[in-house]
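Hello forum,

I keep getting stuck at the same step: I have a sequence, I want structure tokens, and every attempt I make locally crashes halfway through. Rather than fight my setup again tonight, could one of you with a working pipeline run this one for me? It's a single chain of 435 residues.
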Amino acid sequence: MDLKALSRSRTIRLGQRTNLEVKKEGYLNKRGQRLSMIKHRRYFRLDGTHLTNFKDAADTTPSWDYSLLKCSVEPGENKTDLVIRLPNRVLELSAENEADAREWIDKFTKASNMYIENFYEFGEILGKGQFGVVMGATDIETRERVAIKVLKKKHMDEEDYKYLKREIDIVTKVNHPSVVITREVFETEEQIMIVMEYLGGGMLYDIIADRGTLTEQEASYVMLEILEGVEYLHSLGIVHRDLKPENMLCVRRAMWPWRVKLCDFGLANFVEERTSLMQTQVGTPYFAAPEVVKGLQYDSSVDLWSCGVILYTLLSGMFPFDDQENQANIFKLIVKAQVKFPDAQWSDISTEAKDLVFKLLQKDPTKRLSATSAKQHPWIVSGGPKTKSIIRNDMSMVHMSMRNFKEAAKERPELLRPQASELVESESTANVGAL
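Reply #2:
Ran it on my machine without issues. Output:
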């Protein structure tokens, strides 16, 4: 697949700040390359840094497509003329009138200067991934600190690019205090750069692991922020599909509240109004709902199952469905959905907290709480028990389980693709006797 060709159809710079997109279209007279005295009337369309040329406004297939990034733009001999100097050719154009010529020159000039170094100073590497790095950076104009995800297209195949395009489509639409804000997206033929707000607190689970303790009041507040983010996404028809610790970042860690925000929408998808169901096995096994594991159709309720798993781990430091000795058995445990609350970890946890966990981890998606109803649960509304009793929670078991599963999956990739025949279980045992 030609990812360069795909990139030409996208605006180079997208985001929520004003006057980002450079767009203009209309007719210009173009001087011919061979017969320089003859001018041809052509329809031009500027989208970001990409300039396309059509014989007529009704045409859908361009005669050519050029990137104006770092090109030279200048007025021509006459007041209606303009000249664009590209690396391998010169475009001599003329507009209908002087005002139109000035507007085209202004747009072309902005497009030619729309590379990320004109807007941000890059700093240190914050993290590395399969397709690139996350860099710390500073906004040149406001001096605000940001994080920039720099992704190399040469490392992507068609499926990777599909998920990335989906993420870009989503992050440029969302704006909520419990969701990481994407300021803008830059795209060149070689790479894509996603500029996000900088969250210095790091991952939620790392903060809890470093601290070693948590109160139910704190856990209740954290879950409220998570549920608010999920509720917002669902209101837009977006299902995250991969809620897990790595996708929950905090604004700060030294001062309470930490301000938890959801991020990473590579697996997220829009729910079609006409169907509202999806049927793709994506996500992280420990946080996947039974219907996802079984390859059945599912809807936004899968995110609430993940919230139930997250709350369970916050309160106990363990996964609700785990098998350290046999990772393949994890999927069977998820499908059975028999939630247990061992006394060793749960004896000091309130009945209200267990009730919310239980109602989120319902095997039947129709019986699972929605984000809105979960926010209205007494344990969330009350802010947790007023006793502020300490939960000893070092997260070591959670980290160990996830690490062991990843290592086992490297040796046995089939762990990531459980067969339906292996997941047959007794419906009558699901969610029975949990409390």
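The chain has a mean pLDDT of 81. If your local run keeps crashing, start a new thread with the error log.
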